[in-house]
Specification:
It is built from 28 helices and 19 strands. The chain is globular. The longest helix is centred in the last third of the chain and has 24 residues, at 499-522. It is of the alpha/beta class and 689 residues long. Bound molecules: adenosine-5'-triphosphate and magnesium ion. Adenosine-5'-triphosphate (ATP) is lined by residues 3-5, 8, 25-31, 242, 245, 277-278, 563, 565, 620. Residues 281-563 form the UvrD-like helicase C-terminal domain.
Length: 689
């Protein structure tokens, strides 16, 4: 219990009934959650009756680590504790229920979802007229608001509302046909399941006798319903959050959940925390100045730092993105080389994923280790995805997305026409596409070549199934045998432009073998169930976490940085168009917010406010050093276009920052040259003396 202030202590000691901790950034909300869990355990509450939920895998991982640290020596006390994201918790619920029914399922990643929507648009002859991402985001928002297709409001004036009404039910039907769930389903399908099956719900309510939620300001309607159902009988729900950090409105989060918590859970105790333990006072002053300009309803907070200082923050003005990146990397190098900082103490934040490229290149050239938060690259690589598709299909033969992906890969004579013929037969006869392959002999308009191809694919899947289901071969061995069987290595060699490229691609496949083998070493990858769990986890990106551990500079979008803290933070691209984001500024041109990590939205003042909160989130990640950088110009379609400083920079009091001009020079090479020259000079001097 040491290391808590009185308000924190009150929140930790409070045991039963609803509790809301509403407080600004860095005030120890997450710390309250972890300490509270430890306190509950000390009081004899079984770990298996505690569920803590948060939003990102990283946050869940860190929470687990903090608890283990606090429990040192008593680690077994935490056995059975659930700390997870909403999505993986939902996945867990669905997995158990589906297992009880003995059915397999697949999780759609974004690529799968986009492909499906495209296909539906083609079927309803609306192919090119709509932006797929915009429709996806409408569907996603509907699901997050817990609306069924038939519950969508009518809006004849809005073409996107109309098309969504057409696509959404078909999309749901496709998911059902493929025995698949998308990300949003992992929450709302659980709620529907619980609503339909009070017996199932009751089991989970027992599991969640003590429920804790971090970052509550970003919950959506579906998540709220999940929590309300779960908390019903015991009402021991503790939520912590900060309405100033609500940044997922564009994805359906509803800040009213936190603002109205006391109405939803009557008798709730409310605790406010006012001391910030993270950032130096100057950084906090900057954050407070920007957030106090919020115009919408907010809980006024008086946040003060325990770390007085009169250092100023830096606003760096660069001539170009290259110069901005080079400067950022130079600074990081300086901290590491001269100031005893480590790569993991530094973070580079930006508004959109697209901004990462320049800085990534620069770090790579300089040989500085980095990791990209939420970067899924490894498992997105083609050859890895192909192999995973085989495994997914083997376990769930209704998974048409995976099937289509590998049906003719490597080439086995099933051309596009054949695929379409098979699909038509399947549709007419009410089969899945896989069933059409199994019954290809009964179909007369399929070419001999395609027929042979189908047989060979069927054989491959059957053999793989046997290895997994009957022989219980470990997953890495299954994957290797599969590669053998389909001749993946040969195909990679034949289709790569250079031997080097082929080696790289094959290296990715071996990377997957290694990941599987590591998993096996940790225990359990011999059974279909383990492999299927692993594949699900990969899709949710928590299988890849181990790849990205270690001492590395963190690169992250602002959204991905929520809840994290770093000694040194560089926030790039503080310019109109990036922050606030372009799509927020534009008139409702396409109304096409993407559902990717970089947000978006329409041009309402509310969206600018959300961008302001996002800026606040970024600023409050920094402990000691904050650098806000911007470019004077950026190349757009090859031409340099002048850029306007972000309006949020204007809200920073002049006495809190120094502005510097960044020179246009590469990250290190000049310095390296200089060092060499100096060494030479020193040597010459030595000779002369
Ligand atoms: P955010 O809003 O960004 O999620 P938060 O409110 O969850 O922030 P924490 O991450 O829990 O804040 O705490 C911020 C930092 O302050 C952490 O490094 C934490 O260990 C430290 N801290 C919190 N409370 C105390 C305390 N009473 N004494 C010393 N350090 C503290
Ligand atoms: Mg936190």
């Amino acid at each position: 219990m040491s290391g808590l202030n009185p308000a924190q202590k009150a929140a930790v000691e409070h045991q039963n009934g609803p509790l809301l901790v509403l407080a600004g950034a860095g005030s120890g909300k997450t710390r309250v959650i972890t300490q509270r869990i430890v306190r509950l355990l000390e009081r004899g509450i079984p770990a298996s009756a505690i569920v803590a939920l948060t939003f990102t895998n990283k946050a869940a991982g860190e929470m687990g680590e903090r608890i283990h640290k606090l429990l040192e020596g008593r680690k077994s006390a935490a056995k059975g504790l659930t700390i997870s994201t909403f999505h993986s918790f939902g996945l867990n619920v669905l997995t158990r229920e589906k297992r009880a029914q003995n059915t397999a399922f697949t999780i759609f990643d974004q690529g799968d979802a986009v492909g499906t929507v495209k296909e539906i648009l083609r079927q309803v002859d609306a192919g090119k007229r709509f932006d797929v991402a915009a429709i996806m985001s409408r569907i996603s928002n509907a699901k997050n608001a817990f609306l069924l297709p038939e519950e969508l409001p009518d809006d004849g004036m809005d073409p996107y509302a109309e098309i969504t009404k057409i696509v959404y039910p078909r999309y749901q039907a496709a998911l059902r046909n493929f025995s698949a769930f998308d990300f949003d389903d992992l929450v709302c399908e659980v709620v529907r399941l619980w609503q339909a099956r009070p017996d199932v719900l009751a089991r989970w309510q027992e599991k969640a006798r003590y429920l804790l939620v971090d970052e509550y300001q970003d919950t959506n309607r579906a998540q709220f319903m999940m929590l309300r159902l779960l908390a019903e009988p015991y009402r021991n729900i503790c939520v912590v959050g900060d309405d100033d950090q609500a940044i997922y409105g564009w994805r359906g989060a509803d800040v009213r959940n936190i603002l109205e918590f006391e109405d939803q859970f009557s008798g709730a105790q409310v605790v406010k925390l006012e001391e910030n333990y993270r950032s130096k006072q100057t950084i906090l002053d900057v954050a407070n100045a920007v957030i106090s300009k919020r115009v919408d309803v907010r809980h006024k907070k008086h946040l003060f730092s325990s770390r007085l200082s009169d250092d100023k923050i830096t606003i760096a003005v660069a001539p170009s993105p290259d110069a901005e990146a080079a400067y950022t990397v130079r600074e990081i190098q300086r901290w590491i080389r001269d100031e005893g900082k480590q790569p993991k103490d530094c973070a580079v934040l930006y508004r959109s994923n697209g901004q990462a490229k320049v800085i990534e290149e620069c770090l790579r050239t300089e040989g500085i280790a980095y990791r990209i938060v939420g970067g899924q690259q490894f498992f997105e690589r083609k050859e890895v995805k192909d192999l995973l598709s085989y495994l997914k299909l083997t376990l769930n033969r209704s998974d048409e997305i995976s099937l289509r992906r590998i049906m003719n890969y490597p080439a086995r004579g099933i051309g596009d026409t054949s695929v379409e013929r098979l699909a038509l037969h399947a549709k007419a006869k009410g089969w899945t596409l896989w069933e059409a392959i199994e019954r290809v002999d009964a179909l007369d308009d399929v070419s001999e070549q395609a027929r042979q191809g189908c047989k060979s694919l069927e054989k491959i899947v059957a053999e793989t199934r046997k290895m997994i289901l009957v022989e219980q071969t470990p997953a890495s061995a299954v994957a290797r045998a599969l590669c053998e069987r389909i001749g993946l290595k040969r195909d990679i060699e034949a289709s790569s432009p250079t031997p080097n490229a082929a080696a790289k691609r094959w290296g990715n496949v071996e990377g997957l073998f290694n990941t599987l083998a590591r998993r096996e070493a940790k225990g359990g990858m011999e059974q279909a169930r383990d492999i299927s769990n692993f594949l699900h986890a990969l899709t949710l990106d928590f299988g890849s976490d181990e790849e990205t551990q270690g001492n590395a500079v963190t690169l992250s979008t602002l959204h991905g940085s929520k809840g994290l803290e770093f000694d040194i933070v560089h926030l790039l691209g503080c310019e109109e168009g990036f922050l606030p984001h372009q799509r927020t500024l534009e008139e409702r041109a396409t109304d096409a917010p993407t559902f990717a990590e970089d947000g978006g939205g329409s041009s309402k003042a509310a969206d600018i406010e959300e961008e302001r909160r996002l800026f606040y989130v970024g600023v409050t990640r920094a402990r000691d050093v904050l650098v806000l950088s911007r470019c004077k110009a950026r190349a757009m379609r090859g031409k340099p276009v002048p850029r306007t400083p972000s309006r949020f920079l204007m809200d920073i009091p002049p006495e809190r920052f120094v502005e510097i001009e960044v020179r246009d020079e590469p990250a290190m090479s000049t310095n390296a040259g200089l060092e060499k020259a100096n060494a030479l000079l020193a040597m010459l001097e030595g000779l002369g003396g």
